[in-house]
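ARCHIVE CARD
CATEGORY: sequence design from structure
SOURCE FIELD: tokenized fold
FIELD CONTENT:
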């Protein structure tokens, strides 16, 4: 039986821009075989869409709460979404 696929739309606040946070997300998404995208927002947050197996999304959310060592994550706002049509993980500009 195939694992359940889910999609999450996440807004991350804290010291998350200019510290390689999006590159960290892309690397971790590749390890977990997740699809979607990440981009910086003008208000200082990072916006992320993740799609993949439910258990791998849960693992990724734990990684996002910590972030890379040079970042500071203050808050994660996570929303469930309908599955989109993503073939890989991208950083949007």
């Amino acid at each position: 039986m195939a694992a359940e696929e889910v999609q999450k739309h996440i807004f991350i606040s804290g010291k998350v821009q200019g510290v390689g946070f999006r590159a960290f997300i892309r690397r971790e998404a590749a390890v977990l075989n997740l699809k979607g995208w990440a981009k910086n927002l003008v208000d200082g947050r990072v916006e992320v869409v993740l799609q993949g197996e439910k258990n791998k999304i849960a693992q990724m959310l734990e990684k996002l709460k910590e972030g890379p060592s040079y970042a500071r994550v203050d808050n994660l706002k996570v929303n469930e979404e309908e599955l989109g049509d993503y073939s890989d993980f991208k950083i949007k500009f």
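CARD ANNOTATION: The helical segments are 21-32, 54-66. The domain at 5-85 is CATH 3.30.70.100 (Alpha-Beta Plaits).
SHELF: design records, drawer C
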